[in-house]
Design brief:
Length: 411
């Protein structure tokens, strides 16, 4: 038995299997975890909070708007405190609420605020479990990154036999243990790798005082550089003009124009294992840069723009190309455009973000990504850019391992 010195938040919703969760608390504590328990109102009908209080050694929380709780540890602090959230049992009703983003009690609100891994151990009657609407909700949660443990097959409290029994506490414990050890592995998933990241906007000068640019702040690319560094990689960051401090231990190359970014990336790409193009590179730049300030004269004027070189496509075309990851910033038809860029630029992966809705994307603290690769996809839900970057880095390392493994087998 491995011991884990982690913070585990146990959510208990209202099902007969709630009694098993008392045993779960005991097992988790035995392994050295600190456990806090949040119960829904209907869970209180099945088991007393005193049982969980005695087993966890902490008061149990049941109210969203509880002045005392909010003062001590409110839903946001709970979500931040937890290394993992496990909801056991997760009833059909709770699963529906989580799948649809409802936040009308402490547990569902806390789920929305959580950025750590979330596990559910469903428990319900077998006919309920088999209902298409329940399966749709389960599928939705899977896409949203929620992990599921169980349910098991067996005789149920209602006397029926089938799939729907909550997984045994010992099994749940083992799954959480596996999660912790894979997270420790994740922390080192790019050890020995060299990662090149591009970030920020480019500036395309019109004359000595004017330029064309975009709203990129560099936050997404800088977060990726830091996440790659934290995953053990040696990181080079090619940055357009931004006002962010250079991340420590990252080799930063400052550039201004798309042409300079192209030269900086292409001269280094071959020596790297991974290239991530998070920069918002200008697609066009002025054909002529006026040597002196352009004077105001006619009522209308025309600027001729020439297409810039595509950095991403050129990296992907190198004979010894790194694992090449593009971004797609879209205001509509996100998936179609992202899939088209993945194919046309011959990328290993593309991370697509909405940039029209004012939430996420350019110059915001948070972002969400739809990640595509040949024959695969994953949704990374809205969270702060560093946590999102960590998830993308892990996904990249998983895909890179698979590709390297396939290459070895065909060599
Ligand atoms: O910097 P932030 O404020 O944090 O915002 C983050 C972001 C929205 C800029 C980032 O998440 C993002 O989406 N970056 C890519 C923006 C973009 O230019 O997307 P695109 O769909 O126009 O380009 C597709 C890909 O081609 C990108 O990887 C881009 O770097 C690359 N490209 C584009 C043109 C060009 N000449 N060379 C390129 O390599």
């Amino acid at each position: 038995m491995t011991s884990f010195n982690k913070h585990i938040l146990l959510g208990v919703s209202g099902g007969i299997a709630a009694y098993k969760s008392a045993e779960l608390v005991r097992l988790l504590r035995k392994r050295g975890a600190e456990v806090r328990v949040v119960m829904t109102q209907s869970a209180l009908q099945f088991i007393s909070p005193l049982t969980f209080q005695a087993l966890s050694g902490h008061p149990v929380h049941t109210e969203l708007l509880d002045a005392e709780t909010e003062h001590a540890m409110g839903h946001i602090s709970f979500a931040r405190w937890a290394d993992i959230v496990i909801i056991a049992p997760a009833t059909a009703n709770l699963i529906a609420k989580l799948a649809h983003g409802a936040a009308d009690d402490l547990l569902s609100t806390l789920y929305l605020a959580a950025t750590c891994p979330v596990y559910i151990a469903p428990a319900m009657n077998q006919a309920m479990w088999n209902k298409p609407v329940v399966q749709d909700n389960i599928q939705k949660l899977k896409i949203h990154g929620v992990h599921r443990i169980g349910p098991d097959v067996g005789v149920q409290a209602c006397g029926e036999t089938g799939l729907g029994r909550m997984a045994e506490p010992a099994v749940i414990c083992e799954c959480l243990e596996a999660c912790f050890s894979s997270r420790d592995e994740q922390a080192n998933c790019l050890r020995g790798c060299k990662v090149l990241v591009s970030a920020g906007p480019t500036r395309e000068p019109l004359d000595p005082v004017r330029y064309i640019t975009n709203r990129s702040s560099g936050k997404m690319g800088y977060a990726l550089a830091r996440a790659a560094l934290d995953a053990g990689a040696e990181v080079t960051l090619v940055s357009g003009p931004v006002s962010l401090p250079a991340p420590e231990l990252v080799d930063v190359i400052h550039v201004e124009t798309a042409a300079q970014m192209h030269a900086a990336v292409l001269s280094r790409a071959s020596g790297h294992d991974i290239y991530i193009g998070a920069a918002a590179v200008a697609d066009y730049s002025p054909a002529v840069i006026a040597p002196q300030k352009i004077k105001k004269q006619a009522d209308e004027t025309t600027i001729i723009l020439h297409k810039t070189k595509d950095i991403l496509a050129d990296v992907a075309a190198l004979a010894d190309r790194p694992f090449t990851v593009g971004f797609a910033a879209e205001t509509h038809e996100l998936e179609n455009y992202a899939q088209a860029k993945l194919m046309q630029k011959n990328l290993d992966m593309i991370a697509a973000n909405w940039v029209a809705c004012g939430q996420g994307g350019f110059d915001s603290e948070q972002n969400a990504l739809q990640v595509f690769w040949p024959n695969g996809r994953k949704t990374l839900p809205m969270t702060d850019k560093y946590h999102l970057a960590k998830q993308l880095i892990h996904l990249i390392s998983e895909r890179l391992q698979i590709i390297n493994h396939e290459k070895k087998n065909t060599a």
